[in-house]
């Protein structure tokens, strides 16, 4: 076992056990912590309301953009918004939430560029702001052009922004600053990355189903369903593998990775249930003759519980991607010490098995 060190003395100190830990009282990135987490927390309800917009086909409830029925977005009458049709309520609310996330992203950029010594973090904050702006433009083009393909891209972009914001929030956390390189260079590192990639692929397949074009053939639609189910099996296998490998003796010094692993297990169980329920509320069951209680069920895709189930399935998928990012951050931080270097995003302390 060998290791190289390149640690900045003004950012780090040693405890009584000789371990390197950050000086939290003077750590400049603590000012980014609040804005990063505020942005991340607000992105999730934005995704949920966006899912409701898709579930209720409310994307064109407000036919103009960037205003709302000729009003400035922020000056639209509150009474007309709150007491108007439900599709108007969620579409205008989605736009207001998007504006809030944009303002928080700007605040994060200003905080990062004023206080952060990590150059890569400052540019990552700019990247998040550009991603949020791009999402807003996609949403606007979806209204102006009334394009279903643009709506699908917009639906895929939201969880990606959520994952990006989650990464920035985690990289401003105390766990990121205090993690020690105790994980071997192989194994969990690549499993966690495989999980992240597979959840993103599953998101894209789900978006294809959710925004299926009217001219999609039945065989093409069923092919997408089978691909979605196959990828669900792959994601399930990788999450179970993470739970088993993370509990092995190899990772006994990195028990922190079990927290996101356990959260993934809970989200997996919830997502499988929601996925089954989503199929039932959208298409019923093929064996209704064998189950009389299902034969009595009348499909109501825009009913209260039905819309919550379908939207919850989509939102839980976004949570799984964000939790996979959490797992990747905890694993990779403990595989190699990522130094808070203003000039680079480097691994300067590596554990070799």
Q: What keyword list fits this structure?
A:
mainly alpha, disordered C terminus, disordered N terminus, single chain, two-stranded antiparallel sheet, 4 strands, two-stranded antiparallel ribbon, 2 domains, 353 residues
Concise summary:
With 353 residues, this protein is mainly alpha-helical. The chain is built from eleven helices and four strands.
Model description:
This protein has a two-stranded antiparallel ribbon with strand order 1-2. Strands 3-4 form a two-stranded antiparallel ribbon. Helix content is 65%, strand content 4%. The chain has 2 domains: 27-178; 180-353. It has 353 residues and is mostly helical. Strand 1 and strand 2 (20-22) form a beta hairpin. The chain starts with 11 loop residues before the first strand and ends with a strand.
Sequence-ordered SSE layout with sheet pairings:
Blueprint: E1 12-14, E2 20-22, H1 30-55, H2 78-82, H3 86-115, H4 119-145, H5 148-170, H6 174-178, H7 188-210, H8 218-245, H9 258-283, H10 292-295, H11 304-335, E3 336-338, E4 347-350
Antiparallel strand pairs: 1-2, 3-4
Helix pairs in contact: 1-3, 1-5, 1-11, 3-4, 4-5, 5-7, 5-11, 7-8, 7-11, 8-9, 9-11
